[in-house]
Design brief:
The chain is of the alpha+beta class. It folds into three domains: about 100-305, Rossmann fold; about 325-410, no CATH class; about 420-485, Nuclear Transport Factor 2, Chain: A, CATH 3.10.450.720. Helices cover about 30% and strands about 25% of the residues. A hairpin with a 2-residue loop joins strand 23 and strand 24. The longest helix has 16 residues, at about 210-225. The two termini are about 35 Å apart. About 45% of the residues are buried.
């Protein structure tokens, strides 16, 4: 690959003088890029995913991702993203080195976490998995088209505690100062780690030589400081090799915000210390493509000064005085939900989901739609919100009264054992794929034709993937969302 001369000249002084390692680094850009896959831990484990890949007819993974307990390095001749289980949210396709920042962030259940530059959503999904459905995750992006892809990925992977906003970091900081326990800044950068995956990015590299990335990174980090509570954790990462956008950006942030402490990152699986510019920056980590599985990453973890055992940041502006947009569910809505759920959900699952709408998860109505909000949710008024919480479904009046229709998201947080009205869709004969394309489904039912009406879960290889409406005689109306359908 022809690399930009300025890129080569900038990095050469950072390597040993004998030039051998630098030559190995340059040669790595002519090697095939590395693909990865991460198990969506609410639904499966790494070992479970390994078995699923075999059942899907995929080649055996090449290795575990050493810094991510849910990650696998994929063989190049596989295509798991084409399999229907991808649509069921069992896994997320992600470049291996990109799995590191969330592991360093180490979010915990019950915390308030912000993914500040979140689209397309791989790291947000990873955060949500680590939080186990407890706490509050805000995933934000500056661009609405990218943020809509973020919403879809969070919903596909069953995130139940996430909201999504579109806006600048400084606008968020003005609304939610000191609110978050942990913040991830996976910053926009010159993308040098993408060169071998996207050779065109090498040709576009010169447009970033004016320092525009660095100025944006500085502004994002300053906003992150305002958003983070005292004692909180800030992780800064990029997929570039430029010291100016990596170590020097972090060093400048430490100069502007005295008291932050670099937290050492355990170096495993071929990771290396960051360049030592003083200020404890060797605690940060670099993944080099000639040393470790991945296309390259920089990651630094910083702890804000203050008492991490004390009260979390002020919520005065977070709760605000904005006009409420949600109303609690009333008896008629709860009755309508039970009419839907009793024939569809197994008794234990019915009790669990019914508890969500009885107040345990702050279920609330807006425009006929019911969302599950986090405990003590922040006021997101005056922000551009694409997703306020977990969408459970919607209510509408028909000739028989109030009716509840489940959301697609609800199917993707249920297990096969949670359901008693299911339709198994075979993969081998193309039925599952036809369902994902929105076509009418015809399935021979071993127990006899399902009674027409109501809802049934579409299940692929034992995993709920969406909803169907039985029509009788083995025919089912396809309820797969139009915007999600495969072409």
């Amino acid at each position: 690959m022809k690399l930009p001369p300025g890129f080569v000249a900038r990095l050469r002084p950072r390597f040993p003088e004998d030039g051998e390692e630098f030559a190995a680094f340059l040669a790595s850009f002519d090697a095939p890029f590395v693909s990865g896959i991460r198990a969506n831990s609410p639904r499966t484990t790494r070992e479970g995913l390994r078995a699923l890949l075999s059942a899907m007819g995929e080649p055996a993974p090449l290795a575990d991702v050493p810094w991510c307990p849910d990650g696998l390095v994929l063989a190049r001749d596989g295509a798991p993203g084409r399999h229907p289980l991808h649509d069921a949210g069992l896994f997320y396709l992600q470049e291996p080195s990109a799995m590191l920042p969330v592991e360093v962030l180490a979010p915990r259940p019950g915390e308030r976490v912000l993914d500040l530059c979140a689209a397309p959503g791989g790291k947000s999904v990873q955060i949500a998995s680590a939080m186990g459905g407890e706490g509050f995750l805000l995933a934000n992006d500056l661009h609405e088209d990218r943020a809509r892809a973020l919403v879809r990925n969070l919903e596909r992977c069953g995130a139940t505690q996430a909201a999504v906003t579109v806006g600048s970091p400084d606008r968020l900081a003005a609304r939610l100062p000191g609110y978050f326990d942990r913040i991830l800044v996976d910053a926009p950068c010159s993308g040098e780690g993408m060169f071998r995956r996207d050779p065109g990015s090498a040709a576009r590299w010169a447009q970033y030589a004016d320092g525009s990335c660095r100025s944006a990174q500085d502004a994002i980090l300053d906003a992150a400081d305002e958003l983070l509570r005292p004692g909180g954790r800030l992780v800064y990462s990029t997929c570039t090799f430029s010291p100016d956008e990596d170590e020097e950006t972090v060093a400048a942030f430490l100069d502007r915000h005295p008291g932050y402490r670099p937290v050492p990152i355990a170096k495993t699986g071929g990771m290396d210390d960051a360049f030592d510019l003083g200020r404890g920056l060797s605690a940060a980590a670099r993944i080099w493509p000639h040393r470790a599985p991945g296309d390259g990453h920089f990651c630094a973890c910083l702890e804000k000064p203050g008492d991490d055992a004390g009260a979390r940041g002020s919520t005065e502006s977070a709760t605000g005085t904005g006009k409420p947009t949600f109303a609690p569910l009333g008896p008629s809505e709860r009755d309508a939900f039970r009419r839907f759920a009793e024939p569809v959900l197994a008794p234990e699952a019915l009790d669990r989901v019914a508890s969500w709408i009885s107040g345990a998860r702050h279920a609330a109505l807006s425009g006929g739609h019911v969302h599950l909000l986090s405990s003590n949710p922040p006021d997101l008024s005056r922000l551009h919100v694409l997703k306020r919480g977990f969408h459970l479904g919607s209510f509408a009046e028909d000739r028989r009264g109030l009716r509840f229709s489940p959301s697609h998201s609800l199917a993707l947080v249920l297990a096969r054992a949670d359901l008693q009205r299911v339709v198994d869709l075979p993969v081998e004969d193309g039925t599952a794929l036809r369902y994902l394309k929105g076509e009418t489904v015809s399935v021979a039912e071993p127990g006899g034709a399902m009674e027409a009406g109501g809802s049934a879960a579409a299940v692929v290889m034992g995993f709920p993937t969406g909803w169907l409406k039985p029509q009788g005689g083995g025919q089912f109306k396809n309820l797969y969302p139009p915007g999600w359908r495969r072409q």
